[in-house]
Model the fold of this input.
Amino acid sequence: MLQRTNKHIPQEANDGLDDPITMYELHIAMKQGKNKAPGYYGISHDFFQLTWETTTYMMEIMNQMFMDEKLMDSKKYGIIVCLKKNTLAYTA
Done:
């Protein structure tokens, strides 16, 4: 199946992917986000919205890690949680 896919990202989609995160991008992401599952540290979307100064500081840290090409150990892992689907929602 993967052999039939386009293996290259078009240049127009690739432009800017290596640029640091901007305040505008952070602002848009925060507006679009919902207060769903918290991240690795258990911090929710609402927390970041309520502490905007801390959020912008975190953006600076992430941009520095990106430029240095080094990740904190906690950024190298993810948590995958299996959720049971509500089968009643799929019956007619």
